[in-house]
Amino acid sequence: MSAKKVLLGVCLLLNVGNVASFASMPPQPHEVVPITMGEIETAQQEWAAAIVAISNVHLASGDVVAEAKAQIEKLYGYAYTPVLFKPTKAAVTPFRAMKEGALSYFVGGDQVPKGGYPEDKGFALGSNGDGWSKVTLEDHQVVLNGATAQAMGEYFFTNANDGSISKVEYTFGYKRTSDGVVRIYLHHSSLPYPMPGPSSPPPSAP
User: Fold this and answer.
1) Cα separation of 75 and 51, whole Å?
2) Among 48, 88, 127, 143, which residue has the least CB neighbours within 10 Å?
């Protein structure tokens, strides 16, 4: 056998080995695109607009359940990742890991036969069903962590009937889901702790 044929055989064996080695390599993770401040601002604007949209459908006697479902699917990551949702006024069932639990809180437990909770009155429908005409978010701080981001602050809900404003405190966590969209994976909401009066005793530690 000539030296040229031997050399050719060795090269072929090396190439086959390289292909086999490459084929056995574990799949490389997709590059994660970091979340930007602009995307957080857009997500917050869309959340505020969603609450007003649900409220408007409610006041127009439309299909508020369908509207709320669409908004939750757009804004929250339930279809892609575990979601940590702690609504403001949920006492009996304070944590809502399932989409139906979030829907129940948005539109009322009586509107969600499967997965709804009787304690829910429909926060997106406004106080006493009056609706919300405006929602604004004011961040105290936003932290960007590459694939995720967290925001903490206060949101203000304007009553569509009498113009009164309700202030609530929030923490949002955002994650880029597999379709490239930034969605909510963490939402904790609470009422401000009441300020003690001049003659009130100091609050006890939790």
Assistant:
1) 11
2) 143
Crossing angle of helices 99-107 and 37-59, in 10° steps, is 50
Token pair 């709804």 in the structure block, residue:
116
Confidence (pTM):
0.80
How far apart, in whole angstroms, are the C-alpha atoms of residue 118 and residue 56? Answer: 23
Q: How far is CA 38 from CA 41, 138, 153, in A?
A: 5, 15, 17
> Order of strands across the sheet with 182-190?
84-86, 182-190, 165-176, 148-159, 132-145
Q: What is the pLDDT of residues 30-61, one digit of tens each?
A: 678 999 999 999 999 999 999 999 999 999 99
Specify burial of residue 2 (Cβ count, 10 A radius: 0-12, 13-18, 19+). Answer: exposed
Most confident of the following: 3-7, 13-17, 24-28, 178-182 = 178-182
pLDDT at 169 over 90: yes
